[in-house]
User: Fold this.
Amino acid sequence: MKTGERIQWDQQGRPVVPDVPEIGFIEGDGTGPDIWAASRPVLDAAVECAYGGNRAIVWREVLAGEKAQRQLGGRNFLPDASIKAIARYGVAIKGPLTTPVGGGFRSLNVALRQRLDLYACVRPVKHIAGVPAPVVHPEKMHIVIFRENTEDVYAGVEWPAPRQCA
Assistant:
């Protein structure tokens, strides 16, 4: 087993990344294994290219979803050990996780966000030259999208619908 080091965080909350960080990955369900099989070599090649072989990633699998249930049995789709592993690595990547429609259990994606306190998804937007845009000068726009991830419709607080009168 290759050895790596944990990513640390400085006092300003910025990551201090060693030359060979350990990063957790959740393969995912459905198309997840195929996506991960295609993504991992691309990520490894990007690190190789960017750092000329002086840096690498040690990938550590974290169980979640159907794979966790198959390997651990019962209804354990998001083991506590997996949450602790992600917290320990400080960084993780995940594939799509199953969410049954109409019952079963709640979204594992939302559960991960809530358990790890991942309140917002922050997505900087950049214009790509040549791509049509609905504004005259898209290259002059600076946009960041903040998507709230754990409350509102994700909180799981539900109320009965009001009674409708005929």
Q: What stands out?
A: Residues 32-51 form the longest helix (20 residues). The radius of gyration is 20 Å.
